[in-house]
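Exercise 7.
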Amino acid sequence: MQQPLSTVYAPGPDPGAATAVFLHGLGGWTHNWAALIDLVRDTAHCLAVDLPGFGRSAPPPDGVVTVGRQAAAVAGHLDRAGHRRVHLVGNSLGALAALHLAAERPDLVATLTLVSPVLPALPTPQALRVALLGLPGASRLLAGQSVERQLDDLYRLIYADPALVGDGQRAVEARERQRRAQLPYA
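Solution. The predicted structure, written as tokens, is:
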């Protein structure tokens, strides 16, 4: 049996509405989708998923995290929860996992939306730095940096205008980074 995935489910007002499933990028978590979910929850059921090893989802017991295994874990969750023909949305690493899921289980996917997908290519030095920070144990490399500095660096890298990140989102992200740093598998 697969380990359960941490999710945030926001049901829409229409019981017959379609379900949109959101997969975050490297180092992300369900909260990354909060603003978008607020915009679409009136027309769809929304399910944000923490991929294995990210957010509040523990890594697999053997510690092996691959895109294929992430896609299989999401498919298993959708199967167990009875979701069919979902609108699958993925960002960055989550987009790659969504692409794998759609290729392996087209019966689960009605539409596929990929936002800045990670596809095979040579990474830029800046992207390589971010990818390295997603590796197990990398949080220890950041131990000397304040959470605020980590967020500033991350936001400068992924947002065209980091000033648009609200104080509420920043506070939630800071608390989550502090929580993750305490995990035995951080």
